[in-house]
Amino acid sequence: MNIQKDLREHLEGEIHFDEIHRQVYSVDASIYEVEPLGIILPKSKQDLRQTVNISQAYNIPVIARGAATGITGGCLGKGLVIDCSKYLNNILEVNFEKQYAICQPGVVQDRLNEELAKQGYRLGPDTSTGNRATIGGMAANNAAGARSLLYGTMAEHILELELLLASGESIRFHEITEEQFEEKCALKNSEGRIYSEIKRIRSQYAEDIKKHFPNIPRRVSGYNLDVLVKPGNINLCQIIAGSEGTLGIISEIKVRICKRPAVLGLSVLHFENMFDGLRSIEKMLAFHPIALEMIDEKIINAAKHSPSIKDKLGWLTGNPQAVFIAEFEGANKEEVESKLSRFSSSFTEQQISYAAANIIDPKQMNAVWEVRKSGLGLLLSKRAYSRAIAFLEDLTVPPHQLADFMDRFCRYLKNKGKEAGIYGHVGSGCMHIRPYIDLRSGDDVRLMERMMKDIAELLLEHGGALSGEHGDGLIRSWLNKKMFGPNVYQAFTELKTAFDPHNRMNPGKIVYGPPLTENLRLTPETSQIQIDTFLDFQKEGGFTLAVDLCNGNGLCRKAEKIMCPSFQATGDEFHTTRARAQALRAIVNRRLPISEFSGEGLREVLDLCLECKGCKTECPSEVDMAKMKAEFLYHYHKKHGMSLRDSIFANIGKWNALGSKFASFINFFGRSIISKFFLSLIGISPKRTLPMLAKQRFSEWVKDHQFLPREKQVVLFNDTFTEFNEPEIGIAAVKVLEAMGYQVIVPAWQCCGRPAISKGDLELAKDQSSLLINHLLPYAKQGLNIIGLEPSCLLAIKDDYHGLQGYDDEALEAVIAKCRTFDEFIADHIDEFQTKESISKTVIVHGHCHQKALIGMSPTLKVLLALPNLKFSEIDSGCCGMAGSFGYEKEHYEISMKIGSLKLFPAINKNPEADIVADGFSCRSQIGHGTDRKAMHLAEFLVKVLKN
User: What are the residues whose beta carbons fall under 8 Å from the beta carbon of 333, sequence distance 6 or more?
Assistant: First the structure.
């Protein structure tokens, strides 16, 4: 018999056994890599049950997986990985009156909270990965989060759950009385056997449990047997919480929901010495904050250099060694402000803290929390193989012992010659500490193991635990016998056997853990391939390191902002930036043959990368997948040749130049059924109409226009789309700039090469980039600003050209220094723009992906803010879905429209009277196709509101 055949015959969900999928699912956010046998994406409980039954017949382990944001390797294994996040992600019921919600395991935390917020509720535990962490994963890991001082852990919020056992049976667990517990024990089935074993374990190991379980606010290590020796009713959900899928797979979960605080506020205390803050924790806790967090200078310094975080540090004063963030709640603003004032003044007046920022504005508070939540990614953004590695990641001790413990720990690190980034939930005694380790160094790997053993001893002295948040997984399970003692560890193994007699549910976690160094992603023996690249990856530390910058934190699975549009549309792990990076890493680390670097498997996993550049900014590690995809396509085309369609799109400027001579005929023919038929044959969707060619090129209008000499001069970069498709935008820009008192110089058209880059025709792109640099260099040397109307074209110069020309090209740097997008230039000179006294218009704005990723939307918004009485708002959209030629390609049409339908199209349809501003040519094309509305470039809108 064949397991793949059996699965395909009995399941409705997706089944993947191919090599690329197995590589994609072999990592999480840990330092481990374990290739599974296959991957199942179930569509129903029946699919789940059939998967478990079939795996039982073949004696194959099963491993449940959510968003895989864990740092312990908890969802990695050599059996069948079951990913519930794509389909089993429905909120089944919300009852606000009885204060509960029932969810499938794949529901994302923030999505549940969004639903609950409609009636002023929330889920208590709130992980820093809440925009992608699933409820099933949070339960399996007994998640807590920053506000555990108020809400505790998931174990305290699970009212009921349905657990699928290794036998294929499902059991519902919920709170029961002692009398009901005895009735369960009397049952003659699997449920009765489990309850009977629980009863025996409680009786036999009660004293050991009381003696060896640490008395601390948070512990996410071992099984929660301590709940068995507490008075009151029994709820085995609290034991299943934190069991990491080793007892069974949660197929449905009922959670308690909580009222949201009416008003929140933050006080951020700044300390010149971290230990001054740590020694003040008890004093801080006496004020009863609902959260008490700390971040150290290493994270703060990394944040200062992070494109996505650096503008969120407005609350920071000076250069603290550490800041402590206390959050307070209250019935109203005045109450919270009073709490903040009393709290902060008690530390600043005694000069314990040198500065404090009291914040009650939600936007500013979100900025503080974003820095805190980005701590992990910021530490991992270092471009080197000596990285902040998670192995002593979330140590936890009683809060009053934290200062002494950390003093000893830091001295230990110094003695070993190591530094670490430090942050954590200090109010709960839980510290995130990541020493810098190079896993390619045998000495460092041996030191890592030595450190774990030594710090385990130190933790036992302080009554602490190895994990206060992230669990055991592969990284810590091997130490559980040491941490809990042989008797309690024996109780753990007996509990595991009661639920899973044959050790098939996520084996190797909590009990029977493998050695620390087994299954490491990188080892001293790893032989990495150095790929000879066309593009310059010097800034990333080389192509191999560029690939390995992905730390697996899964931020690319979020549902907001730019990254990652294809995942936002499909919900499929295969279409994340993480998946693409891992497929590339598998090649450079020789887990896949080098031939795959130009192979079909890699092409498939990279296919839905829209090259939006969102990952370059939004990923804390700044993974530049657009650049890596361009490099891959170059090698792929070298081996397989470039298709006619790709060649046409890569050379779109040349084809437009040819077609512009017959613009009327081309436009007429392009709309015909015959044209769409032939275009379909080469892979262009017949549902699209190719962009119209203008009857008059922009350069022709320029020749006829009388440019008045002015003292102030600017250069207007004539891009391909302005030249051939929408010269009216160039004309509008000239009118605006002239009205501001500038003489506008318009050089002859020269394609920037961005279309060629997107198609991997890098030799063409390099030639075009060289020509354009030489074209613009004389103006740059004169000190003239070079203004670009099309964001992707202008930003290709500022971003992509480094890869094409190198990072030490003086001519390029001179040109880049003078390049500005149109909105940037106008924003910087807005005082020169004379507008009408009153503008009775409403405007909604959509930004181009490259615009949002590389410069942000603040310049556009600043311009609009300066216009009197204008009502405007930015659409909360990511990528429009067109992405250059992507949306025109037949196989990509549906997903292109699905991406546009996520937020962009609905926002436009809700505002039928508003003007739409979108500076990207692709964006305007997509908006027109998806909504039948015409969007304007900012230049066109400004012409409409000019005073004269």
Answer: 263, 360
Q: Render pLDDT for 57-78 as a digit per residue (tens, 0 to 9).
A: 999 999 999 999 999 999 999 9
Which amino acid is it at 892? H
The answer to whether 521 and 437 are in contact (CB under 8 A) is no
Query: Starting from the edge strand earliest in sequence, which strands make up the sheet with 819-821, in order?
Result: 742-745, 712-717, 785-788, 819-821
Pairing of the two strands 785-788 and 819-821: parallel
Q: 289: burial class by Cβ within 10 Å (0-12, 13-18, 19+)?
A: buried
Cβ distance 933 to 905 under 8 Å? no
* Fold (CATH) for 834-944: Rossmann fold (3.40.50)
- State pLDDT tens for residues 574-615: 999 999 999 999 999 999 999 999 999 999 999 999 999 999
pTM above 0.70, yes or no: yes
Extents of the domains making up the chain: 3-83, 543-641, 652-828, 834-944
Closest of 83, 860, 76, 102 to residue 513, by C-alpha? 76
* C-alpha radius of gyration, the chain, whole number: 30
Give the residues across from 126 on adjacent strands.
145
Q: Does domain 3-83 have CATH number 3.30.1130.10?
A: no
577-588 and 625-640 helices, crossing angle to 10°: 60
743: β partners: 713
Q: Left, alpha or beta for 152 (phi > 0: left; psi -120 to 50: alpha)?
A: left
Query: Do 806 and 536 meet the contact criterion of CB atoms below 8 Å apart?
Result: yes
Cβ 716 vs Cβ 614: under 8 Å: no
CB count in 10 Å sphere of residue 571: 18
CB 551 within 8 A of CB 380: yes
